[in-house]
Amino acid sequence: MIRIVSKKEGFRRCGVAHPKGPVEYPDGHWTEEQLAALQAEPMLVVQSIPPAEPPVDKSHDSHESHDSPAAEAEAKAPPAKQAKQKGAK
Predict the structure, then answer these.
(1) Which is it for strands 23-25 and 16-18: parallel, antiparallel or unpaired?
(2) What's the rounded mean pLDDT across residues 53-63?
(3) pTM of this prediction?
(4) Domain count of the chain?
């Protein structure tokens, strides 16, 4: 993915009026020649954004515990009773 930010609203390059705010384009949107022109343009900030990795689902891994033994014991313990204050009505 390519993110482009123009330093001037509406600055044109490669047939596009680029806004000041960031715009993300999917891989393959620009040709190699267009990318080279965009990256060489001092009025544009061009960033290559790596694809996001999907989260790893560990819910099927029975060998791994997400809580420490102390946290598991605390979760199983009954709630502590609050002590009554003397003189309180």
Answers:
(1) unpaired
(2) 66
(3) 0.58
(4) 1
Residue 40 in domain:
yes
Question: What tens digit of pLDDT does each residue of 6-37 get?
Answer: 999 999 999 999 999 999 999 999 999 999 99
User: How high is the pLDDT of residue 66?
Assistant: 53
Residue 37: the pLDDT is 97
Distance CA 18, CA 9 (A): 7
* 73 within some domain: no
Its domain, for residue 25, covers 2-48
Edge-to-edge strand ranges of the sheet holding 2-6? 23-25, 2-6, 44-48
SS3 13: strand
> Helices marked H in the chain — which ranges?
32-40, 69-76
In a domain, 78, yes or no: no
Q: Yes or no: say if 17 and 9 are a contact pair by the CB < 8 Å rule.
A: no
